[in-house]
Amino acid sequence: MRKVVLMAFALTTLFFNANAQDSTPAATEEDKGKFTFSGYLDSYYLGNFNKPLSRRNTGAYGLNEEGTTIPGGNARAFDYVAGQFSLGLVQTKAVYSNKKSEAVIDLTFGPNADMGNYGNYVGPLGGGSTALGIKQAYFTYKATDKLSFTAGQFGTHIGYEVIDAPINYNYSLSNLFNNGPFYHIGLKGTYAFSDKVALMAGIVNNIDNLNDNNRAKAIISQLYVQPVSGWNVYLNWIGSNEATSQTTFDGAYYSLFDLTTSYQITEKFFMGLNAAMGSEKAGSGQDASTWGGVALYSNVAISDVFGLGARYEYFDNTSGVRGVRNGLGAGTTVNSVTLTGNFTLADGHLLIKPEYRLDSYPKLSGGGNEQHQKFEDSDGVFSKNTQSTLTLAFIYKF
Amino acid sequence: MKLISVHFFWHRILLIAGLNMILGWSYAQSILPVENNKIVFYEVNSTDSIPKELLHQNAYNWLVAQKFTSIVDSLTADGHKLTAISEYPVYATGYLTKRQNGSVSYTIQIEVKENKYRYRLTDFVFHYYHENRNYQVVPTGKIKPLEDAKASGWQKTWESNKKATYVLVNNLVADLKKAMLYNPAQEKVAKGPIKEW
Predict the structure, then answer these.
(1) Which of A315, A380, B4, B83 would give a disulfide with A293, using CB separation of 3.0 to 4.6 Å?
(2) Residues of A in contact with B133 (CB under 8 A)
């Protein structure tokens, strides 16, 4: 009994001593730490001018055994369904940070969360496991003012657009986004040479997967440069063996170079550019197939309440290594134009985005291919090589 | 009778709401001192027996301690003039926690002469921030003079940013006034008994 009392006394003394040290005047706000809870939810109504019978905007997947073009392509990343109100994503994000560290727990739910986290269904509990709700979960240790280390699951450094609807200007997502990585699990270090130059390098399992495909690890890197105030340039790269049953690094090697840059040219006018070039080998001894694309972004703030933005994108998957394919299931190219209005209301909490998008694929002709275009008409026939959609998106962030 | 009282009730509600809006808006506007359509915090202060050299040193030390940048020190006909710039974050209030929505930059000018000094804080400019694709809150490059009365769509946050400016500048000025009175000669006298003999 006496030992227990003495132990309790020692622990209590230790606790109060530690607390007394924490409350010294020298401890700044930053030292004490800061907790932030934020998130968003989004929903939308999408109309498709082709009136596809399947009500899917994703276009053709390819041919079935009977030689008929079937739906199930990936012409759109998240906004799959036409002619209905749809729920996008619900996010709850908790961030704790202090002078030396930061922890981020970013949980997402809903249809877009499932699609953004598609590699996670191979979690320990199988499909629908709790791992599916984790968009990001990582912590950063700030070793010095210039050097930091991050471990856990984090959003990819590749690309211009992100899963989070409030951050993107356009509501629908680009083909570059849809055909690039979404997230990685691993460890990375960032060294900031100055406010204008930083270098990141890391080791991750692979691309978009809770578990690694094999024993080989992927390498990620990013060089950040700010040539002038308001102009940001990111040069990104990832190299990964995506083979599923091989242990050598010579398997299905995936490499992706990416340039993401943005510049606030005037107080009202903004421009951005994303360009990527990727290659992937199907296996040992095989040649790599390539894909790539470029997207140009601009927006103008007409007032604090309303802005207008445009995106033009060209994506080339002629090799067929990625998911952008025509009605025959072969690799193809696509041109896309997106015009987005952006209303900011309720003290910045509510974003309303009306958006028009046109996707144009090469028209197939001859040999009966008129019925094997990318997009479906109201009779369920794939007779359209273009698709126009009109979306009204509602985003609430807090 | 019931209809009349319901009608009267809603009239009163609307009137109170309208007055609240007008008073709230004018309060945010009025708390920041305006001179020729610019926000200016200005005051002349006299000090007892503090020479201009010491006032100059106190002002310079204070600017450095407060992490002001671009400090320019110049001579005037009868003293010194120091100018510098600084910036502070401002926040939008969330439902549970606050988030940085921007920063406000401003310039400060401190002039000293024998036994007196004056300060002038002006050029308050709001810099818009947003969350970038790496989830960092960074400047967008867009700016807005803090003198602007209206911020369509985010008026409440705009007014709260102005109130934050008022509180911050008043605290800053109080600290400046304290720092300017520092006089090592008087400190020695005021120390009282010492252990050495």
Answers:
(1) A315
(2) 159-162, 167, 260
* Nearest C-alpha in A relative to B133: A162
What does the DSSP assignment read for A198-263? EEEEEEES-SS-SS-SSSPPEEEEEEEE-SSTTEEEEEEEEEEE--SS--STTSSEEEEEEEEEEE
Q: pLDDT tens digits for A125-154?
A: 666 678 888 999 999 999 999 999 999 999
- Give the ipTM: 0.74
Inter-chain touch B92–A398, beta carbons under 8 Å: no
Query: Token pair of A147, please?
Result: 């050097």
User: What values do phi and psi take at A26, rounded to 5?
Assistant: -65, -25
Of A178, A167, A180, A182, whose CA–CA distance to A117 is shortest? A182
Between CA B173 and CA A386 the distance in angstroms is 64
Cβ neighbors of A81 (< 8 A, separation 6 or more) are A46, A55, A56, A57
**Three-class SS state of B72:** strand
DSSP-derived 3-state class of residue A341: strand
Domains of chain B as residue ranges with CATH: 36-187 (3.30.530.80)
B96 neighbourhood in chain A, CB within 8 Å: 37
Q: Is B181 helix (H, G, I), strand (E, B) or coil?
A: coil
Nearest CB to A38 within list B99, B133, B156: B99
Nearest to A270 by CA among A259, A258, A262: A262
Closest-CA distance of chain B to residue A285, Å: 37
Q: Return d(Cα A116, Cα A127) in angstroms, integer.
A: 14
Of B49, B68, B51, B142, the closest CA to residue B101 belongs to: B142
Assess contact for B100 and B137: CB atoms under 8 A. yes
Average pLDDT over residues A12-30: 41
Task: Using alpha carbons, list the distances in angstroms from residue A223 to A275, B102, B132.
Answer: 15, 26, 16
Q: Which of A245, A249, A251, A192 is nearest to A222 (CA)?
A: A192
Burial level of B140, CB count in 10 A (0-12/13-18/19+)? Answer: middle
pLDDT per position as a tens digit, A94-117 = 999 999 999 999 999 999 998 888
Domain segments of chain A: what residues?
A: 34-397
The two tokens of residue B148 are 């602007």
R_g (Cα) of chain B, nearest Å: 23
Residue B1: pLDDT band with limits 50, 70, 90 = very low
| CB A301 within 8 Å of CB B130 | no
Q: What is the DSSP letter of B160?
A: H
Q: Hey, are the CB atoms on A398 and B95 less than 8 Å from each other?
A: yes
From CA B93, how far away is CA B158, in angstroms rounded? 11
Question: How does pLDDT run across A217-276, given as a tens digit for each residue?
Answer: 999 999 999 999 889 999 999 999 888 765 566 678 899 999 999 999 988 899 999 999
